[in-house]
């Protein structure tokens, strides 16, 4: 364990610069590229090395800044502005539910929910779970490519085993703070359009962190197995 701590920030730095996503972001928006670079290192240091109150403040401020930039550039207006296609689909569903469910559906409460809240909640849910799809990050969303969304390389598939190791570790050894952070960015990212040309950038630091943890754990295992290092 001490051996790999001596590497400091080398592993998270390598994870950042060796993935295509960061290079795409820095080419399209230098300020966001620098911001997520710093935020990724802060996430790693705070959640894996030193849990200082000042670092938590820095982490929160940087995350809020990134969220504000993302929403200003790519707020998903379709959540509250249904397209003509959305309206057409809602009309068909309305007829189907009314015929099939009768009074269970045609009461004023169900009708109000369907008219005012169903579509926004559906789109928020779509964005929420879409951002949690590993295919989005490792396989360009294949085989569920999204219409009108630019799919581009984010992480090489070689990082996937380390990502899974990191996920398994976080599940087996729950870390409340990282889980709270993950839930928070998942919720606030739901209002950012999936068409954002930088991708779901709020997930960049946390995915880097998970991959880094996977690499560190795998390295410790093989080092201990073959060379007896601790």
Task: Note the topology.
Blueprint lengths: L1 H4 L4 H8 L2 H9 L1 H20 L3 H22 L9 H18 L1 H4 L1 H9 L1 H14 L2 H5 L21 H13 L3 H13 L15 H23 L4
Helix pairs in contact: 2-13, 3-4, 4-5, 4-13, 11-13
Strand count, sense and barrel status of the largest sheet are:
none
The percentage of residues in β strands lies in: under 5%
Radius of gyration: 21 Å
Instruction: Decide which structural class fits the backbone.
Output: mainly alpha
Give the end-to-end Cα distance, rounded to a whole number of Å.
Answer: 5 Å
The count of β-strands is: 0
Low-confidence stretches: 1-6
Task: Using the alpha-carbon principal axes, give the shape.
Answer: elongated
The number of distinct structural domains comes to 1
Bin the helical content.
over 70%
| Continuous helix count | 13
One letter per element, helices H and strands E, the order comes to HHHHHHHHHHHHH
Oligomeric description of these chains: single chain
Mean pLDDT: 85
Description:
It is a single chain. This protein is mainly α and 230 residues long. It contains 13 helices and no strands. It is elongated and about 65 Å long.
Salient structural properties:
230 residues, mainly alpha, 13 helices, 70% helix, disordered N terminus
Task: Summarize the structure in short.
The chain is 70% helix and 0% strand. The protein has helices spanning 2-5, 10-17, 20-28, 30-49, 53-74, 84-101, 103-106, 108-116, 118-131, 134-138, 160-172, 176-188, 204-226.
């Amino acid at each position: 364990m001490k051996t790999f701590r001596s590497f400091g920030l080398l592993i998270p730095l390598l994870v950042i610069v060796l993935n295509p996503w960061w290079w795409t972001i820095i080419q399209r928006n230098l300020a966001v590229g620098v911001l997520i670079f710093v935020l990724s290192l802060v996430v790693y240091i705070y959640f894996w090395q030193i849990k200082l109150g000042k670092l938590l403040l820095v982490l929160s401020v940087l995350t809020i800044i990134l969220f504000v930039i993302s929403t200003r550039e790519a707020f998903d207006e379709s959540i509250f502005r249904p397209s003509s296609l959305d309206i057409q689909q809602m009309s068909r569903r309305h007829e189907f539910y009314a015929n099939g469910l009768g009074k269970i559906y045609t009461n004023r409460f169900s009708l109000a929910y369907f008219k005012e809240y169903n579509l926004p909640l559906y789109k928020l849910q779509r964005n929420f779970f879409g951002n949690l799809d590993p295919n989005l990050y490792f396989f360009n969303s294949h085989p569920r490519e999204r219409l009108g969304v630019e799919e581009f390389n984010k992480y090489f598939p070689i990082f996937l085993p380390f990502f899974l190791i990191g996920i398994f570790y976080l599940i087996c050894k729950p870390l409340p703070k990282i889980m709270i952070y993950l839930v928070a960015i998942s919720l606030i990212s739901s209002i950012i359009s999936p068409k954002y040309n930088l991708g779901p950038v709020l997930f960049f630091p946390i995915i880097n962190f998970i991959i880094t943890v996977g690499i560190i754990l795998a390295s410790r295992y093989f080092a201990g197995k073959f060379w007896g290092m601790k």
